[in-house]
Design a protein that fits this description.
Belongs to the class-I aminoacyl-tRNA synthetase family. It comes from Camelina sativa (False flax). The protein is 38% helix and 17% strand. The protein is α+β, with helices and mostly antiparallel strands and 799 residues long.
């Protein structure tokens, strides 16, 4: 089976049917998607794709990971691996997250494929032949330290627009004001790798001439934005681009990881990711079917619907259509674009780079079912303005809407039918003659018919939140209908009327499950299971299923035997909400540090208890308390080292030694130590400033080229000695707190005796492990905030 449980046989457009090609913005592969990413593109598109299938349209849903570009190269540098290894790792993570969320792709692919290269280069050649490309020498930032041109995402600085002036704008786009930028426009630019200031150098690149394509583009936008009912935020963003004036845009980059440019002069360059990524929709479709042109070059028979967050709009309404129009080929251009604003987290913003918020891989650990997550995100979909995720609001939606309204209605109806015949219907749907003349039933049917029409209208216009709200109103009406009829009394006093009410209500249960399948498919599957029906969902005009909504008593046949009713939702209590708020507070790094610290505290407590028992046994044997040992006689363990959390306040070059730094380090309690370190050849001076470090404080002071070093900063080195990295405590560790080693308790020596070589004896077992944690043997360097780590050196000695 292909992704989402689809047939292995690829679907192709069918003449005479509505053929709908659905895409969602390709999620970038360098990180785990958070809830804002999920609602912004893949989940919204999934709802619409499921709706199209429900209505009997011939629809396919295409997506995949966007894998080329600077961010992948940067992530590979961080994780000390190749870009391909990064892509393989995170593609699998994305796929696992989307599978858990029941996202029903027809194809979930990736852009680092031969098909991407083929399609991308073919489009480029057409643009070149049609003379929509130009060559230009441009000024680009070059880092002398890293010895390379810096791609835009490897540069950060202040936004050049005075109204914004955001201090952490990227070289390609300011996240604060949304303006697209060139790296040379940034104020006070810095290389993200080494933090040095780059210089401007000339380099030749290729450009697409958007100003020359303006007339074709404006004609397309004017016609399609109306016909395709573009969302208002998409129209506003696009008009702002046109109003500000189109500029030529560079389509090549000085990178290695990307689609190579098929031109002799530019063969060492790759295509810019903005140019290459939207073409991924096409190449992923070509991986789905070799007859991909029937979808992508068939505008007479195919409608293209695209879903994304607002930051992606210009690439889909200006850049990609310009590329398609420039080829002169008969491309299927986007008809409808559905754009979301931002979903914020509690009191701040979701952030992949900072690890803030609830991420796709977190939700599985909450024991909150997928249908609850999907429902909450979709009711909170930021269609017009930014919305906010909060745990209290999720609790309110689950308990007040899913449990009390929807779950309660379904369970009341099915549980009553399942009761023995003495008090119910023995699990059999009753016949209901006379329903057409039952006043409350006719009133309900009129309301339901109207609501179903409103649901269809909203969904056709891709107003997903309105569609969900309308479906839930039918559940409301069902509950009111049960209460107004007091079916439990009717069963005793008027069995024919009771049968009408119950058969009608059972039909509503079936209808609601159909309408909600695009939103919460696992719920609908469970309802159909309890109805003893196969999970086949259909609301087709051709089969009269929409019309049947006006006669809900006819939806389920009499004598049909249902399955076993079960509660569909579980209450979320205040204690659980508080636990989740605490668990997901701060960044992902903070959470890992808290978890590690908690685990180590447990381990430490067990060790202390074990040591106390041993000491008590030893004391009882000797008939009294153990005598304290003089320092010279103590066992050589890590307890004798006074390693503290310190912060470098200032670092500078040693005035008389080229390879040495002199640091002023705060080691707590108002004590500042002068430390001399041989790190000049390994760590740039800029990176030594304001660093959290692990400091060995009870070494005998030593004079190093006329400056007395009063401690030692601990660092790890690679096996070949070419690389050195500082051992760093968590950012939230307390300056001056002692770094401990669970299982090795006791006060440190006031001053280590250099003749006893205590540190030298212990140092042979100091190293980093495969998880980059600094350890003594297998015991980690531990603080109250978590363990101490290095950036990238695994299995290296620590000194």
């Amino acid at each position: 089976m292909e992704d989402g449980g689809k047939s292995d046989v690829p679907k192709l457009p069918i003449p005479g049917k509505r053929n709908i090609l659905i895409t969602s913005a390709l999620p970038y592969v360098n990180n785990v998607p958070h809830l804002g990413n999920i609602i912004g593109c893949v989940l919204s598109a999934d709802v619409y794709a499921r709706y199209c299938r429900l209505r009997g349209y011939n629809a396919i849903y295409i997506c995949g990971t966007d894998e080329y570009g600077t961010a992948t190269e940067t992530k590979a540098l961080e994780e000390n691996c190749t870009p391909k290894e990064i892509c393989d790792k995170y593609h699998a993570i994305h796929k696992e997250v989307y599978d858990w969320f029941d996202i029903s792709f027809d194809k979930f692919g990736r852009t680092s494929t031969p098909e991407q290269t083929e399609v991308c280069q073919a489009i480029f050649k057409k643009l070149w032949e049609n003379k929509w490309l130009s060559e230009n020498t441009m000024q680009q930032l070059y880092c002398d330290t890293c010895k390379k041109f810096l791609a835009d995402r490897l540069v950060e600085g202040s936004c050049p627009f005075d109204a914004c002036n955001y201090g952490s704008a990227r070289g390609d786009q300011c996240e604060n004001c949304g303006k697209l930028l060139n790296p040379t426009e940034l104020k006070d630019p810095k290389c993200k790798v080494c933090q040095n200031t780059p210089r401007i150098r000339d380099t030749d690149h290729l450009f697409i001439e958007l100003p020359l394509l303006k007339d074709k583009l404006e004609e397309y936008i004017k016609e399609t934005s109306v016909a395709g009912s573009w969302s208002q935020n998409a129209i506003q963003t696009t008009n702002a681009w046109l109003r500000d004036g189109l500029r030529q845009r560079c389509i090549t980059r000085d990178l290695k990881w990307g689609v190579p440019v098929p031109h002799e002069k530019y063969k060492e360059k790759v295509f810019y990711v903005w140019f290459d990524a939207p073409i991924g929709y096409v190449s992923i479709t070509s991986c789905y079917t070799s007859e991909w042109e029937k979808w992508w070059k068939n505008p007479e028979n195919v409608e293209l619907y695209q879903f994304m967050g607002k930051d992606n709009v210009p690439f889909h309404t200006v850049m990609f259509p310009s590329t398609q129009l420039g080829t002169g080929e008969n491309w299927t251009l986007m008809k409808t674009i559905s754009v979301t604003e931002y979903l914020n987290y509690e009191d701040g913003k979701f952030s992949k780079s900072k690890g803030v918020g609830v991420f796709g891989n977190d939700v599985k650990d909450t024991n909150i079912p997928v249908e609850v997550w999907r429902y909450y995100l979709l009711t909170n979909r930021p269609e017009v303005s930014d919305t906010s995720f909060s745990w209290k609001d999720l609790q309110a939606k689950l308990n007040g809407e899913l449990l009390s309204n929807l779950g309660n209605f379904v369970n009341r109806v099915l549980s009553f039918i399942a009761k023995p015949e003495s008090s119910g219907y023995g699990s059999v749907i009753p016949d209901a003659p006379g329903a057409e003349s039952h006043p409350l039933t006719i009133s309900l049917a009129e309301k339901v018919e109207k609501l179903v029409a409103e649901y269809v209208e909203a969904m056709e216009k891709v107003k997903l939140k309105q569609g969900l709200k309308t479906a839930m109103l039918i559940s409301n009406e069902g509950n009111f209908y049960l209460q107004a009829n007091q079916f439990w009394k009717l069963y005793k006093d008027d069995k024919p009327s009771c049968a009408i009410v119950i058969r009608t209500a059972a039909g509503l249960v079936h209808l609601i499950a159909q309408l909600l399948e695009p939103f919460i498919p696992s719920f609908s599957c469970e309802v159909f299971k309890q109805l003893n029906l196969p999970p086949h969902f259909s609301l087709s005009d051709e089969r009269g299923e929409v019309l049947l909504a006006s006669r809900p008593w006819e939806i389920l046949p009499p004598s049909h035997m249902i399955g076993t009713p079960q509660p569909l939702f579980k209450e979320l209590v205040d204690e659980e909400v508080q636990q989740y708020r605490e668990k997901f507070a701060g960044s992902q790094a903070d959470r890992r540090a808290r978890d590690e610290a908690a685990n180590l505290r447990d381990q430490l407590n067990k060790t202390k208890l074990s040591d106390a028992k041993k000491q008590k046994a030893s004391s009882s044997k000797s008939g009294g308390k153990p005598k304290p040992q003089p320092a010279a006689d103590r066992e050589v363990t890590m307890a004798r080292l006074d390693i503290r959390v310190g912060k470098i306040l200032k670092a500078e070059r040693h005035p008389r030694a080229d390879a040495l730094y002199v640091e002023e380090i705060d080691v707590g309690g108002g004590e500042i130590r002068t430390v001399v370190s041989g790190l000049v050849n390994y760590i740039p001076l800029e990176e030594m400033q304001n660093r959290m470090v692990c400091v060995l404080c009870n070494l005998k002071p030593a004079k190093m080229r006329d400056i007395v070093s009063q401690a030692m900063v601990l660092a790890a080195s690679s096996s070949d000695g070419s690389k050195v990295e500082l051992v760093e405590p968590p950012e939230s560790a307390i300056i001056g707190e002692r770094v401990t080693f669970p299982g090795f308790e006791g006060e440190p020596d006031d001053l280590l005796n250099p003749k006893k070589k205590i540190f030298e004896t212990l140092a042979v077992d100091l190293h980093t492990n495969e998880n980059l944690v600094a350890c003594y043997k297998d015991v980690p360097f531990t603080t109250s905030a978590g363990v101490c780590k290095v950036s990238s050196i695994s299995n290296g000695p620590v000194r």
